[in-house]
Amino acid sequence: DTEVTQTPKHLVMGMTNKKSLKCEQHMGHRAMYWYKQKAKKPPELMFVYSYEKLSINESVPSRFSPECPNSSLLNLHLHALQPEDSALYLCASSQVTGGANTGELFFGEGSRLTVL
Amino acid sequence: LAKTTQPISMDSYEGQEVNITCSHNNIATNDYITWYQQFPSQGPRFIIQGYKTKVTNEVASLFIPADRKSSTLSLPRVSLSDTAVYYCLVGGAPNYGGATNKLIFGTGTLLAVQP
């Protein structure tokens, strides 16, 4: 199984709603990532989890709240979003290796979020 | 933090070889160089990864000079379906023990293949 599965594929929410994006992988990867991608732009790193601990937060607003309940799951909780938060949200995972670094990320297909 | 620079766009024709170069002047000793392909509304897909010299797989080759300050992705005999954005990344996944390295995407190169 070499897949990263993201749900839902599409989400429309109002600015007062609370919703969550989910990501799952069964490759035994111990690093998981959230990226945000706007149209015609590269993916922007948001959060990195390593061994279920948050290791990088790229100064993301608190209306985005990540959670890693176990080594296979990654959630992104959304609350009080703004229309400019509309984007494709990508989840990725990778092996964690002692010593040399690698950068082989396995991405999901993304969740397309629209904030009205 | 290693920053990458790529051409914004390239044009090619079916059957040609395409070479996309990425500049990464401040690459760190432990950093790997990884290339991804992305189609619209899909997640990026891993193409190839290397540390130094040349790496080849079934879809591409990666050339890395001795100073590692640049790298070139080579796509042999491109087809229309190779039209996509290609990103080069420099860096690595978090190390065991919690040390972290960021994986930051550069602007990418939009490759347009014409018949």
Characterization of the model:
The complex is a heterodimer of chains A (116) and B (115). Chain A has strands at residues 4-7, 10-13, 18-25, 31-37, 44-50, 53-57, 64-70, 73-79, 87-94, 106-107, 111-115. Chain A has 116 residues and is an all-beta fold. Helices cover 0% and strands 45% of the residues of chain B. In chain B, the strands form two sheets. Chain B has a five-stranded mixed β-sheet with strand order 1-9-8-3-4, with no helix packed on it. In chain B, strands 2-7-6-5 form a four-stranded antiparallel β-sheet, with no helix packed on it. Chain B is an all-beta fold and 115 residues long. Chain B contains no helices and nine strands. Chain B has strands at residues 9-13, 18-23, 32-38, 45-50, 53-56, 61-64, 70-75, 84-91, 109-114. The termini of chain B are far apart. The A-B interface holds A 4, 31, 33, 35, 42-45, 48, 50-51, 53, 55-56, 58, 88, 90, 92, 94-110, 112 and B 30-34, 36, 41-46, 49, 51, 87, 89-98, 100-108.
In short:
The complex is a heterodimer of chains A (116) and B (115). Chain A is built from no helices and eleven strands.
List descriptors.
heterodimer; A: 116 residues; mainly beta; seven-stranded mixed beta sheet; four-stranded antiparallel beta sheet; 11 strands; globular; B: 115 residues
Can you lay out the helices and strands and say which pair or pack?
The complex is a heterodimer of chains A (116) and B (115).
Chain A: E1 4-7, E2 10-13, E3 18-25, E4 31-37, E5 44-50, E6 53-57, E7 64-70, E8 73-79, E9 87-94, E10 106-107, E11 111-115
Parallel strand pairs in A: 2-11
Antiparallel strand pairs in A: 1-3, 3-8, 4-5, 4-9, 5-6, 7-8, 9-10, 9-11
Chain B: E1 9-13, E2 18-23, E3 32-38, E4 45-50, E5 53-56, E6 61-64, E7 70-75, E8 84-91, E9 109-114
Parallel strand pairs in B: 1-9
Antiparallel strand pairs in B: 2-7, 3-4, 3-8, 5-6, 6-7, 8-9
